[in-house]
Amino acid sequence: MRVDVPNIVHAYQTAERIREVHPDKDWFHLTGLIHDLGKIMSMYGEHQWATTGDTYPVGCDPAASIVYRDTSFDKNPDINDPRYSSKLGIYEEGCGLDKLMMTWGHDEYMYQVLKNHPTCTLPEEGLYAIRFHSFYPWHTGRDYTFFENETDKKMYPWLMEMNKFDLYSKSDDLPDIEKLEGYYQGLIDKYMPGLIKW
């Protein structure tokens, strides 16, 4: 199994796997294609640690499921400040994930690009999946569920559906990108027309 494919290949593999299972949801195909596009930040000087990796909320106790949790926060003064180190920290129970201040990464960057693109009509399910697909402590570790609101519960199945294709789409079966470009350009023109500000 191939795991060292370029991001563009992974993007098309993810999108095409979604398309096979959900042929009637073209917005979902586009979501799969662009879900990691925020990684473009690394081409313009953003550090690797601020571009890729799992995301989690700041301003509350770091969950046990955060990768390297035991060593990552040793020198962070917030860990000893009760305002930021309690279970809820600066948030309220049930406030909704959209109210959490998340660690910076490609998910949040791409979400902000799309939210601020005036002609973006990608459905909320797609925007949500893009924004939280690297929030593994929540969607896979099931930590931070006490922050969920009804929207989060409604969106969770869509996020997990996309992650299924994101995580398990890399293979030796490489997509013919030139052949697929026209289809996906049509989706970009449909859901994100105009010049996008990066």
TrEMBL record:
InterPro entries: Inositol_oxygenase. GO terms for biological process: inositol catabolic process. The keyword DNA repair does not apply. Its cofactor is Fe cation. It is found in: Cytoplasm. GO terms for molecular function: inositol oxygenase activity; iron ion binding. Keywords: Cytoplasm, Iron, Metal-binding, Oxidoreductase. Binds 2 iron ions per subunit. The keyword Cytoplasm applies. It catalyses: myo-inositol + O2 = D-glucuronate + H2O + H(+). Fe cation binds at residues 10, 35-36, 106, 133, 166. This is Inositol oxygenase.
